[in-house]
Every structure is written in structure tokens, then in C-alpha cells.
Predict the 3D structure of the following.
Amino acid sequence: MGEMKTIKKIPVRAVALMGALIEAVLGLISGIITAISIDVAVSTLHSDFPITASLGTGATAEASVIIIGIIGGFISGYIIIAIVALIYNGLAPRIGGVKLELE
């Protein structure tokens, strides 16, 4: 068994950056799934209603969804994780931090 250590303080910027990068990757995945859904919807719409072909392919919307997913995920991930880290740093001295077993 390893030694038990308590996390007393979390480095806010480093943890927030890591969380933001993870959220950006999740935003990319979500954006790709949403873009595929848009593509399917537009294809279905065009096949059911040929007059809608003049509306375009939806490529701009698909690209926008992917870009917004990445950027939005990064920004919101950074802000949320930074707030969580600040709250943890405020509460850890009062109620005790998370205990980890290290080898």
C-alpha cells in the first residue's frame, strides 16, 4: 500500500487549461455528430421537397457547428473548471481535501 496524501490546493490555471482542452475535444466530437445530423436532415429535406435544393447543402452550418463546438467547449470548459478549482481551494482548508493513495 502506498502513502496517503491530501490535495490541499489545486493550481487553477493548469487544471482549467487541461479541462478546457478536454472540453474542446468533446466539443469537436459533438460538433461532428451534429454536423452529420444536419447533413442527414438537409439530404432528407432535399429528397422529400425538391424545391428546397435552392437553399444549399448546409455545409456552412456544418462547419459552423464544428468550430463553435470546439471554441465553445474550450471557453466554457476553462471557466467552469477554474470556478470548480477556486471553490475547491476555498473549501479544502475548512473541510479537508481529497485524499489520494500514492506509491
Remarks:
- The longest strand covers residues 3-6.
- The helical segments are 12-48, 59-95.
